[in-house]
Amino acid sequence: MCLSQLVRIEQVDSGGVRAIGRSGDRQIAVSLAVLTVGGDTPEPGDWVLAATGLAVRRLSYDEVLSITEARLGLDGEERS
Q1: Helix (H), strand (E) at residue 68
Q2: Which candidate, 2, 7, 1, 3, places its Cα nearest to that of 49?
Q3: What Cα–Cα distance (Å) separates residue 57 from each residue in 35, 72, 74, 75, 77?
Q4: If you ran DSSP here, which 8-state letter would residue 70 be given?
Q5: What is the distance between the alpha carbons of residues 12 and 78, in angstroms, rounded to a whole number?
Q6: Which residues make beta-bridge pairs with 8?
Q7: What is the DSSP string of 7-44?
Q8: What's this model's pTM, rounded to 2 decimal places?
Q9: Given Cys at both, which of 11, 14, 34, 36 links 20, Cβ 3.0 to 4.6 Å?
Q10: pLDDT digits over 56-75, tens only?
């Protein structure tokens, strides 16, 4: 079972601690607390790796492509 998901940030609250993002066709709330404490607050358009609603790492677009490719099965369906 895969608990992490790729999330593209759409909105960040004024404190930079919470965000609304999109993972596939779902809109989800994500905590940015871990990244913000480390001085790395994502902005709209950025990609993050989120685990159980907590953004744990900002990702480059190339990393998103690689992860997505790795999760795809031979039949073209995403695997968790």
Answers
A1: helix 61-71
A2: 7
A3: 7, 21, 28, 29, 25
A4: H
A5: 28
A6: 22, 47
A7: EEEEEE-TTSSEEEEEETTEEEEEE-HHHHHTT----T
A8: 0.82
A9: 11
A10: 999 999 999 988 888 886 45
